Structure formats: C-alpha cells, structure tokens
Amino acid sequence: MSNDISVLLVEDNLADVALLMELLQDGDSEHWQVTHAKRLSLALEHLCKTKYDVVLLDLSLPDSQGLDTVIQVQATVPYLPIVVLTGLLDKTIARQAVAQGAQDYLVKGQLSSELLLKTVHYAIDRTQILKRLQESEDRFRGVFNQTYQFMGLLSPDGIVLDLNQATREMSGFQDQAIINTPIWEIPCWQTVEISKAWLKTAVLRASQGETMRAELQAHTSQGTLRWFDASIKPLKDEHSNITVLIVEGRDISKLKRAEAEIRQSLAKEQELNQMKNSFISMISHEFRNPISTISFATNLLEDCDLPSEERKSFFELIYTAINEVLHLLDEILLLGRTEAGKIEIDCKTIELESFCREIVEMFQLTTGNSHPILFSVKGRSTWAKVDTSLLKHILDNLLSNAIKYSPKGGTICFTLICKGNQAKFIVKDQGIGIPKADQAKLFEPFHRAANVNSIQGTGLGLAIVKRYVDLQQGQIQVESQEGVGSTFTVTLLQDLSQDLLKPHNPSVAKEQEAFSRNQTLLES
Ligand code: ADP
C-alpha cells in the first residue's frame, strides 16, 4: 500500500536538490510529494498555505543562516518534523539545531537513499510521539492546574517536584522558592509543628506504600491559619516501584468553623439545661423549707387556746420564712434583670471609708457581734466615683457570705485599699473555705460548693456580684483553702479622673469639704 508523504525541501543549491529528489524517488514504495523552496521566505509562505509531513532544511540560505532558520520554521508551524541538511564542516551547528527541536540532521555528501528515508520516517514518527506526549502533558496540566483542590507531586523522600496553580495561589509561593524543598520545610507549616511532624511521618509511610490522610492547619499567603483535609498517596510504576507521592488538600476551614459553632451551641445548651435543672431543684428545695414552716406554724396557730407567748414565736417563724422566700425571689429577679442587661449604672462620687463603715455597723447591729468585723483602711484619698447601690450589694453579699460560712465568733477582716486610682475591697474570713474544684465555678448561677452541708443558700449571690463588678469594669478574685478560710477581693477604678480635680464642681467640692471636716473631728 502506498502512502503519500509531502516534503518541503528548502535548499538553494540546485545540484543538492536534484540529488535529494533522486534519492527519495529511489526509495521505497512511498509516493513523495516534494515542494522545493530556494529561500526561507518562500518556504515560510508554503508552510502557511500547505500542510507538510516533513521539512528538509538547509541552514545556509540566501535569506537566513544557521539556527535562526530552524527557529523561524518552528515558529511558523510547531510540531513539524525538521531534518536539517548540513555540510561536513557544519556538524556542530546541526547538533545545536537538534537541541533546538529539529528531529535529526543529514550530512550532504554522505547521503544514501536508505539513510535519507530512514531519517525522514523516524523524524515523522518521533514528532508524532512527541506531539501525543505533549497533548497528554497538556491534559494533565489542565486538570492539575484547574482543580480547586490543592495538589502537589513529591519525590518518595518528600521533596516537592510540582505544585498546582491553586496551591501556589493559596500559599503565595513561586515555584523556585519551594521546588526541591522537603514539603515539611515549606514556610506555610512553620508555626504549626503538629502539621510539620505529621508530614514527615506521612511521607515516610506513603513511600512504603500507605495512603495517609489527616486534618492539618497551614498558613495562607495572607497569614491566616486554615484547616485542610490532606492526603498523601503513593504512585507506583509498572514494576510496583513508588515513583511519586501525590499530595492533596481540601480547604475545610468553613466546615471546621461550623463544627466548632455547633459544639459551642451544644455546650451552651447543655449548660442551660444544667442551669435549668439546678434552678428547679434549688427552687423546690429552697421554697419547700420556708413554705413547710409557714404551713406548720399556721396549722398550730389555728388552735385558739395557744398561749400568747407560743403564738408570738409561731408568728416570728412565719415572718422569717416569708423573708427567706422574698429574699430568694429578689435574687432571682435581680439575676434576671442583670442577665437581660436591664441594670443601668448610676455613678456618684462618694467617700468610700464612711460608706464601708456604715455597712459594717449595720452588719454588727444585725448579727449582734456574733462575728466581729475588723475594718481597716489604707491609702490617702478614699474618694471614688461608683454606683453606690451596686457597691452596697457587692459588699453586703461578700460580708454576709463571710459570716454565713464562718463558725460563730470567727473574725472577719474587711480592708479598703485605695492606691493608684484603684479601690480594693478585701473581705477575709476564717471559715469553711472553698474546695479547689468548686472555685472556678463559683460565679456561675446556682453553683454551691460541695462543703456547704446544711448552710442555707441559693448559689445566686456571687453570680450577681460578678455581674455587678463587670458592669463597673472591675475585677473579682478569690483565694481560698478548705478548712482555713476565704479571701474575696473586688477591685474597682476610683475613676476620679476629673470630678474631684475640678474646683468649679460645687457638689463635689461640698462633699469633699464635709469629708475633711469629719476627718478633723474624728482625729481630734
Ligand atoms: P449562697 O447563697 O449559696 O451563699 P453565693 O453565690 O453567695 O450563694 O455563693 C456561692 C457558693 O460559694 C456558696 O454556696 C459557697 O459554697 C461558696 N462561698 C461563697 N462565699 C464563701 C465564703 N466566704 N466561704 C466559703 N464558701 C463560700
């Protein structure tokens, strides 16, 4: 069967042209369609118009010399097999032409029909193979670069050979910076030691045939930390040797964020559930006692013959029980109002020492000195701008707890320290103390420590205190040891920024004057 092969013969020497034509015709059964061009410009015109299977190209033409001739032909028709025709003395340039992409060269004067045909056939075959290879490479590159997934190729020992476009864009690295670098040395893992360590192990195991997968964190070119579902898979050749490791990554940061949010809201829901349960059990327990007392006392009071002394004591029992219930209701309502953000701050400039003394005196009156409170003051100016009603509530709660959780006769030290624009209120007792495990949860509503035993309480007081302190941008700290005692410290800003320094503020000036007068009287 005969095949037509179209040849463009670019040669200015007519004797060589005649010889080449003759050698071609002497050859096998192929039917050669030869077009002759004496100059490169003519050859390029032919190439633009007609499709050729091969070009026989002399490098010394009247309008082009040397390598440039090859380059121009290639530029006009890529993937056209070129066989360079050269003289005996021009072998070096012919070899350069082959390096440049020509398929082969033939030395004029050493030609035979057989050699010419073999060279032309090989040139055509090789070019077709190269073209198919290039198409396959283009298809691979297209997929490799167009995918949204991050992909890379590694040598079996983890050296980066190639990275796709998505990876380069995400990491912000240009090829030169990371090609030939071990994957764990790439800067995007530098602050994420766990990811680095995993990559080292994964490369080792993948190079032994395993497929590795994990969730890793890495930095993007913008410096943000993202989560990736990463895998490393070994690729084997026909002899089952691992030639390349394929690294893949999928950005799962959004998924991770959603997961964290779900976990958080689940935890919140659990916490709310727990709070609800504590609330219900606290309510049923705390309300039951006083209500049983009221019921018991009223039953007995139905007996009209009861002596008046006993009637009086039953009425007292009822009043105390009612007060307990009212106190509990007050605390629940207060907590509800603070949680709903309904408490507004109303700050006034006051003198803290006398404010604290009044509270201490009130406590000593109501407790009948069962727990002596030693009050002391440190610091020069005890003026501060505070919300008096919130502060009173805070101190009332800390002092009543100190009393409630201390044995009868236990001394309570209450210290006010005003220093460097800060007012510290320290309440220290020698009571039952708080177990370590309970200390972190002390400010959560309804939390009561394990050692309270039969001491009455709701677990709401400190939760309200904490919110009141927060409202004034203050801080509260606890130091406690079970069986030794507890110290609660509330720190508030004195916030005297301007008021006391302003001479034209008449109300403050008056208060200040009154205070200094009191001080002088006290001292004298
Ligand atoms: P309660 O009404 O139970 O006293 P609080 O919210 O005021 O509620 O206090 C929460 C818990 O903190 C108390 O139940 C108790 O376990 C612990 N607590 C608070 N103050 C003291 C203290 N001074 N000494 C020992 N335990 C304390």
Q: Output the radius of gyration.
A: 47 Å
Mean pLDDT: 87
What is the CATH class designation of the largest domain? Alpha Beta
Which architecture of the largest domain would the CATH scheme give at its second level? 2-Layer Sandwich
> The CATH topology of the largest domain, please?
Heat Shock Protein 90
Instruction: Report the sheet-strand fraction.
Output: 15-25%
Give helix % range.
Answer: 40-55%
Total domain count: 4
C-alpha end-to-end distance: 135 Å
Tell me the structural class: alpha/beta
For the largest sheet, list the strands in their spatial order: 2-1-3-6-7
The total count of helices amounts to: 15
Largest sheet: 5 strands, parallel
The outline comes out as: rod-shaped
Summarize the structure.
The chain is α/β, with parallel strands linked by helices. It folds into four domains: 5-143, Rossmann fold (3-Layer(aba) Sandwich); 148-251, Beta-Lactamase (2-Layer Sandwich); 258-339, Helix Hairpins (Orthogonal Bundle); 347-523, 2-Layer Sandwich (Heat Shock Protein 90). The chain has helices spanning 14-25, 40-49, 67-76, 91-100, 113-146, 165-171, 175-178, 193-206, 253-301, 308-339, 352-367, 388-404, 436-439, 461-471, 506-523; strands at residues 4-10, 31-37, 54-58, 60-61, 64-65, 82-86, 104-107, 150-154, 160-163, 212-219, 225-236, 242-251, 348-351, 373-378, 383-386, 412-419, 422-428, 475-481, 485-493.
